[in-house]
Design a protein that fits this description.
The chain has helices spanning about 5-15, 25-50, 60-70, 80-85, 95-105, 115, 135-150, 160-175, 190-200, 220-235, 255-265, 315-320, 330-340, 360-375, 430-440, 455-460, 480-515, and strands at about 210, 245-250, 275, 290-295, 340-355, 375-380, 395-400, 410-415, 420, 425, 450-455. It is α/β, with parallel strands linked by helices. It has a nine-stranded mixed sheet. Strands 9-10 form a two-stranded antiparallel ribbon. Helix 10 links the parallel strand 1 (about 210) and strand 2.
Length: about 525
């Protein structure tokens, strides 16, 4: 089955089975069972290659956990559950049987893999009344989901397919969820752009960690990792240079589980990623970590935060600045957090709302310090409106570096007019992304599109970074003469008369046929 066919089939399954649930609610079930099928099939394949199922003992179990991070008993395999459903066995207690299976997986982990599997199936509430009024109805729907996924083959050869299909489903659920979708998924074209910008950095080829403080479903992290991997493969045979660890933090518990599943489905071993759950600003889970060479992010827009709940002024992440982000908009708080974690020769690329470029008071103070005291703004890229799920506002991509190659100016790119419209959303095309990357990488100046603006000019504008101050993309209207307009009107009227005549002739023929 081709990838496109597989994607369509999976989405049709999700729509057919979700019943009274909206897409945002049902995603945890369809994605959760795809994940369960994956890890079960992965383990079965591992057994077939390494062991005989009849010879399972404690030593073999420990070996499996060391390699994969988890263990599943053969009686709890996805294939065994399907067989029982087809044989009409245990349907009444399917919810109990699955709960026992999920508990076994979580309890089987080692000290090293425990964080990556703990509570991973918590969101799969098999007793939720939205699945059915009675437990039997709920079990019957769960059985249908499991059976529908039976022909979704999982093997070493199609692992990439699986990860891509999982991403596809996440994006479709995000699109259906509207504004809520934007909380857990960055549109593919935007994440591609960020990943390709990151990959232009010299540090990318030798970085050890990629970090995202608001990682959502983890798609942006995976995209950045893969982009760097592609470059290293092209330029070197030494794949040890590829970043070995992905790290991220996510506030929402459902999305946190989604991110961990996404990592495993993209074939990241439990030792290669660390996703933590919690409020990044209030409780930084990576405060003891070394500085990060690569940081990517799409922080939530317009998030409120409480500056007074703790002494943020003495917090190392914010102490280097004279101001804190306003309580109504925490975007600059996330920027300060990320800049603290960024290594001296690292690169940080983040999506932000357009307003952070010019809003006053505390945000103006922070913006001025980043430019005047530290000179960390490297590039500002204006994006088309209506790219993001549930948000029609203007967004930008901002690139920060602490050790900049060109430290006398900031590159401004206005890519807001170059896109295609797909249904009710705007979308960056391949050529739009390539133009952004080429312009950034070579710091090109293109009329009405990009310009390197000196720090002196930015000071003269009181550190206002509004793109329209520095790039004039105004296009003069093509005024037409009255004679041309009259000619067009006459042509329209002539066509109208011709069409009327054709309609009258057609009506006459129809009437004649009726009289016959």
């Amino acid at each position: 089955m081709k990838k496109e066919e597989l994607n369509t089939k999976l989405w049709n399954i999700a729509n057919k089975l979700r019943g009274r649930m909206d897409a945002n609610e049902f995603k945890k079930y369809i994605l959760g069972f795809i994940f369960f099928k994956y890890i079960s099939a992965n383990l079965e394949n591992y057994y077939e290659e390494e062991f005989n199922l009849d010879d399972l003992d404690q030593e073999i179990k420990e070996d499996v956990v060391n390699q994969l991070g988890y263990f599943i008993s053969p009686e709890h395999f996805y294939s065994k559950i399907i067989k029982d459903i087809k044989d009409k066995k245990n349907i009444d207690n399917l919810n109990i049987s699955l709960s026992d299976t999920f508990k076994e997986i979580e309890n089987s982990t080692s000290e090293n893999s425990r964080d990556d599997f703990s509570g991973l199936f918590d969101e799969l509430d098999l007793n939720d009344k939205k699945l059915g009024d009675t437990q039997l109805e709920r079990n019957q729907l769960i059985a249908k989901i499991i059976l529908e996924l039976e022909y979704f083959e999982i093997s070493k050869e199609n692992n990439d397919f699986l990860g891509d299909s999982y991403e596809y489903l996440i994006s479709k659920f995000a699109s259906d969820a509207g504004k809520k979708g934007g909380e857990f998924y960055t549109p593919t074209e935007v994440s591609k752009t960020i990943a390709k910008i990151v990959a232009t950095s010299k540090k990318a080829k030798e970085a050890n960690i990629i970090y995202d403080p608001t990682c959502g479903s983890g798609s942006l992290l995976i995209r950045a990792y893969n982009e760097i991997q592609n470059i290293v493969k092209k330029e070197s045979n030494n794949l040890k240079k590829i970043p070995t660890i992905i790290q991220g933090q996510e506030l929402n518990h459902t999305t946190y589980n989604l991110a961990r599943m996404n990592m495993i489905l993209h074939n990241f071993n439990y030792e290669k990623f660390k996703i933590k759950q919690g409020d990044t600003l209030r409780d930084d889970k990576f405060k003891q970590s070394k500085k990060f060479d690569i940081i990517v992010a799409n922080p939530p827009f317009g998030t409120k935060w409480d500056q007074k709940e703790k002494d943020y002024h003495s917090d190392k992440r914010f102490a280097m600045f004279d101001a804190l982000a306003p309580t109504s908009s925490a975007e600059f708080a996330f920027v300060q957090h990320m800049l603290y974690h960024l290594s001296e020769d690292g690169i940080m690329v983040t999506v932000l709302p357009h307003g952070i470029l010019f809003r006053g008071r505390a945000e103006e103070k922070i913006r001025k310090q980043i430019i005047q005291n530290y000179n960390w703004f490297d590039a500002i890229i204006g994006l088309p409106t209506n790219l993001f799920f549930g948000a029609g506002i203007s967004a930008i991509i901002v690139v920060f570096k602490k050790c900049r190659e060109d430290n006398k100016s900031i590159l401004f790119i206005d890519a807001s007019q170059e896109f295609e419209k797909v249904k009710n959303k705007n979308k960056l095309r391949k050529e739009d992304i390539e133009k952004i990357i080429d312009t950034y990488k070579n710091r090109k100046e293109i009329e009405k599109y990009s310009r390197n603006v000196s720090l002196e000019e930015i000071r003269e504008n009181n550190f206002n970074l509004n793109i329209t101050r520095y790039i004039d993309n105004f296009e003069e209207e093509n005024h037409r003469s009255i004679e041309e307009i009259k000619k067009d009107i006459l042509e329209i009227e002539q066509n109208e008369q011709k069409l009327k005549k054709e309609i009258e002739e057609l009506e006459g023929r129809i009437f004649s046929e009726i009289l016959k």
